[in-house]
């Protein structure tokens, strides 16, 4: 059963114009149009429909660019279950094949932009709290893992000045691998994605001040 509105909307042009016509939209591996929700620190937040294949830079441009002309710090692709990418990845093609190559995800099409005024640590803590709250508790890897993940992040955020983050990040990595490999459903399997990318891709806990 299809319960995704975007998928249902795509049925109409396929029925009216045929599969071949639909397949000519987008790229070889990512066909058709795609909805992207640009939000956060952009001038014109909204939902933008484009053929598959724009870059991250293109979507931010459609939304009017980074608000106030500030410097881009990071983008969360795919929502809470997605991945943070940095400003050096702004030319990432937003296709299934493009994000796979970059070890990211399109998820629900969320493009959440953060400028250099935003403290990302509370954002990551909020994402961890979301997964802890949303875990149904059926399987141990997710039920325990999401709680332990949040605890480790709070320890990282409140560690003394100059204290190493390496031990807690190693623990997070171990918890994350268990959740990915052993959780029953997608919630536990994706609960570490944004946390991992924030810690290891953006290095937000390196040299951060205590909170």
Strand content: 5-15%
**Biggest sheet, strands in spatial order?**
2-1-5-3-4
User: CATH first level of the largest domain: which class?
Assistant: Alpha Beta
* Strand runs, count: 5
Helix content range of the residues, please? 40-55%
- Uncertain segments: none
Task: Give the C-alpha Rg.
Answer: 19 Å
CATH architecture of the largest domain: Roll
Total count of helical runs of at least 4 residues: 9
Terminal-residue CA separation: 46 Å
Helix-and-strand structural type:
alpha+beta
Mean pLDDT across every amino acid position = 94
Largest sheet: 5 strands, mixed
Give the H and E element order.
HHEEHEEHEHHHHH
Number of domains: 2
Question: What is the CATH fold-level name of the largest domain?
Answer: Ubiquitin-like (UB roll)
What shape does the CA trace take?
Answer: globular
């Amino acid at each position: 059963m299809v319960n995704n509105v975007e998928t249902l909307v795509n049925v109409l042009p396929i029925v009216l114009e045929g599969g071949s016509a639909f397949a000519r939209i987008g790229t070889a591996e990512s066909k058709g149009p795609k909805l992207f929700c640009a939000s956060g620190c952009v001038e014109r937040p909204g939902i933008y429909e484009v053929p598959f294949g724009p870059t991250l830079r293109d979507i931010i441009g459609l939304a009017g660019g980074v608000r106030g002309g500030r410097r881009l710090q990071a983008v969360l692709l795919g929502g809470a279950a997605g991945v943070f990418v940095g400003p050096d990845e702004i030319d990432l093609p937003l296709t299934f094949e493009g994000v796979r190559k970059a070890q990211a995800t399109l998820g629900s099409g969320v493009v959440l932009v953060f400028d250099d005024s935003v403290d990302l640590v509370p954002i990551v803590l909020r994402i961890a709290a979301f997964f802890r709250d949303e875990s149904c508790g059926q399987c141990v890897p997710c039920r325990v893992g999401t709680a332990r993940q949040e605890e480790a992040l709070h320890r990282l955020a409140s560690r003394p000045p100059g204290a190493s983050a390496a031990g807690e990040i190693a623990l997070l990595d171990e918890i994350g691998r268990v959740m990915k490999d052993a959780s029953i459903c997608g919630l536990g399997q994706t609960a570490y994605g944004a946390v991992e990318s924030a810690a290891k891709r953006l290095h937000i806990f390196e040299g951060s001040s205590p909170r």
